[in-house]
Amino acid sequence: MNCAICMTTSSIPYHCCTNDKHCLCESCCINIISSIINNGKIALLLSNKIPCYICNEKFQYNDLPQNLQSDLNNILLTIPKTSKQPQSIQEFNYYYNEFNQLRHCITNKKFIFLTQRHYELLGKAIEIYIQTLIKSNPWNYEEIWLPINDNNQNQEKVNIFISNDFRTNTNGCLILIQGCGVVRAGQWSRSCCINESLDIGGIDY
Fold first, then answer.
1. The Arb2 domain covers which part of the protein (predicted)?
2. 138 upstream amide cis, omega within 30 of 0
């Protein structure tokens, strides 16, 4: 059968939607699905809500090529199994490599956007990761929660970080405080920490 897009004859045609009257070659199918993933619409694809570019019928996940299904399954592994706030990036199957870039634990690929909630939860886990780093060698910042000595359980608190010689250095000290929005101590840009590197989005690690 001929591919409905490039018109080349395909030995293994893929009927990616419910319309059996046309098919796609593997190359065109991969290009279309990759575009959907890169545009952050994977959640719609997995729920069979992406319309076919040719007939407007819905793409069917189970009809995709096996290698694409494998890629999608690996992306699904970035959804934490717990319903609570994950505390580590490992729960998302992500890690930071030697260049401080966020990568998938299995595929070593960059972050793939699923939903805004998934993005927010990962961002919180990265915040914990970064602030754990700045409390460790070689920085050894001290974490302080403000206001100090406030036993009011309903009182909102915020953490700041001070250099470990804060109380003894008479020549100067360093204090890391929170910014507005999602800017946190040690993290200037969450988006850069996720899509670029910690060196760009936070303190130089």
1. 86-201
2. yes
